[in-house]
Amino acid sequence: xxxxxxxxxxxxxALHIVSVMAWMAGLLYLPRLFVYHCDAEPGSVQSxxxxxxxxxxxxxxMTPAMVGAWVFGVLLxxxxxxxxxxxxxxxxxxxxxLVMSALHGAMVGWLRGFAAEANRHTARFYRFVNEAPTVLMxxxxxxxxxxxx
Length: 149
Prior knowledge:
Mean pLDDT: 96
Structural class: mainly alpha
Largest sheet: none
Radius of gyration: 18 Å
Helix content: over 70%
Low-confidence stretches: none
Distance between the termini: 30 Å
Shape: elongated
């Protein structure tokens, strides 16, 4: 298995990057849909359209991309010599990926709230939430590329 991982490393890394990009697209777009959904009258055609868009984004793009990011990320971690686990940056990066995964889970809950006509948050809340994935992404990329500590 170790030999296979070493030889497949560039492919695994490329698939990890693609998965992360697709996941980030969803993490950035879904809260924006929530912002607009807040302004739609519950039960209206517009509200029902947002429900379909949100559900499809989550099920067809975001969740499969998150799973891919995790699977390929774990394979990268398991690749011999790829990561120096004595460095602090990898531990911070992994913790932030857990935070991003928790944010994904929170979005699932908010989507269920909209689906049940039971949203409890304002458009302003979702505008704030919309910034969190960007901040996480910037810090994670800087850690992975620069490896500052």
